[in-house]
Amino acid sequence: MKRYLIPLLVVFLAFSSIASEAKEVRGVGSVKYSWFNDEVKAEAIEKAKEDAWKNYVGSFTSAQMAMYQSQLKSQFAAELPNLISNVRVEAEKNDKSQDLFNVAIRAEINDALVAEIFRRNSAAANQDYRDAADFGSLFLAKVVVSQKRFDDRRTEVERTKTNSTVEEDFASDDTSAVDSVSTSDMTVRETGGSTVSRRAESEYEVNEDYNDSLADVVYEKLEDAGYFPLEYVELTDCGAPFIEDVYGEFRSNADMSSRMEKSIRDAAVDCGWSYIGIGSVTLSGHRNDSATGLRAVDANVSYSVWSIEDGRARRVASVRNKTHTAMHQSELAAEQEAVIKAAEYALDTVVAKLQQRSVR
Predict the structure, then answer these.
(1) Based on the structure, what is the number of domains in the chain?
(2) Do 242 and 340 belong together in one domain?
(3) Exposure of 208 by Cβ count < 10 A (0-12 exposed, 13-18 middle, 19+ buried)?
(4) Which candidate, 299, 278, 130, places its Cα nearest to that of 207?
(5) pLDDT tens digits, one per residue of 314-356
(6) What local confidence, expressed as pLDDT, does residue 193 receive?
(7) Which phi and psi (to 5°) does residue 357 adopt?
(8) The organism sits in which domain of life (predicted)?
């Protein structure tokens, strides 16, 4: 009996994890009828569920949408009863003058099952585990610790021009003469100039705790998609820069230099990896949200993936400068949430692009 306990527990945990991840959506449905009854209500609710699903599909990335439209639409339609749950009617109206019944619902979409359908239809999922593509990643979190701002430099230019006019009048008669002189001045002033602004200089600090959070997201997303995650430290044996040198690069620069990035890609080629992902999440904009009073933090994410074939690395997927904002009573909790949101978005996007292109 004991030997069945662990597999059963694993299956139960896997099912629980799929069932617990849900996203709330809304939908509306309308049905024309000749005779109103419960079947009309049921049909309207089904149409509202289809509308809710369409609203959810609208949140797909462009890569997911392309894959959905070209390959998976019918498969998702067949799974719709399992994808939509917890349907609640929010409002209904029977317009007897037009024989039209309307209903508005709120429902939940099983996010994890959606991701699983995409995953099992990807090229990476349809291969033996021993043949899974190696996928290494360097994903770092950095925090803006100081920022020096410079005052605008203003150059004023002024030109003044003055015109004077002299008028003389002369009059005389037989006994006397009078001279009259009047003067008028007019000043014209022209002003202008230019303003020179200098971009603020920022200093960054790599946060190793958040690096661990990024690594967890990368490992989970890649493994779920059918890849074999590798750690960056393994790449240093093939000539990649040591992680301390990478940290030093990020302390003074917003982005990694092209020279260092190329050395990492070259090392991945030499090590025989199938993929290398390089990216960063930058935390900044720490502030109080005026509407809620909570601490708000911005996380800007960039992440690129190169496929390695025939001794060359070519870029196959990327996310560029996408900002996510998180709010919490604690600034630390807001930072953590922003980091995870940004990382999940980046990995979901690049994995969807790889799945769409059937890249193995």
Answers:
(1) 3
(2) yes
(3) exposed
(4) 299
(5) 999 999 999 999 999 999 999 999 999 999 999 999 998 888 7
(6) 60
(7) -85, 0
(8) Bacteria
The first and second tokens of residue 169, run together, are 């009048």
List the beta strands (DSSP E) in 211-259.
228-230
More confident residue, 98 or 12: 98
**Using one digit for the tens of pLDDT, what is the confidence trace for 42-91?**
999 999 999 999 999 988 877 788 888 888 888 899 899 999 999 999 99
Is 30 in contact with 100 (CB distance < 8 Å)? yes
Proportion of the chain above pLDDT 90, given as a percent: 52
Distances in whole angstroms, Cα of residue 137 to Cα of each of 216, 226, 271, 274, 311: 11, 15, 13, 11, 18
- DSSP conformation class of 340: H
Nearest C-alpha neighbor of 339 from the set 305, 303, 304:
303
The one-letter amino acid code at 164 reads: S
Residue 296 and residue 214 in one domain: yes
What is the per-residue pLDDT for 226? 83
232 with 136: CB under 8 angstroms? yes
Chain mean pLDDT for the chain: 81
- In total, the chain counts a number of residues equal to 360
Residue 230 has pLDDT above 50, yes or no: yes
Gap between the Cα atoms of 344 and 341, Å rounded? 5
Whether 160 and 27 map to the same domain: the answer is: no
Kind plus residue range of the DSSP H or E element containing 180: strand 177-196
Q: Same domain, yes or no, for 209 and 347? A: yes
Q: Do 137 and 95 share a structural domain? A: no
d(CA 52, CA 59): 12
Mean pLDDT across the stretch 285-291? Answer: 91
Match 């619902």 to its residue by tokens: 105
Contact between 88 and 106 under an 8 Å Cβ cutoff? The reply is yes
Looking at the fold, whether 112 and 215 belong to one and the same domain comes out as no
Question: Can you give the residue range of the structural domain that contains 229?
Answer: 129-148+202-356
Q: What is the pLDDT of residue 248?
A: 86
Look up residue 214 and give its DSSP letter. H
Q: Give the list of residues 6+ apart from residue 83 with CB closer than 8 angstroms, or none.
A: 53, 76, 109, 110, 113, 114
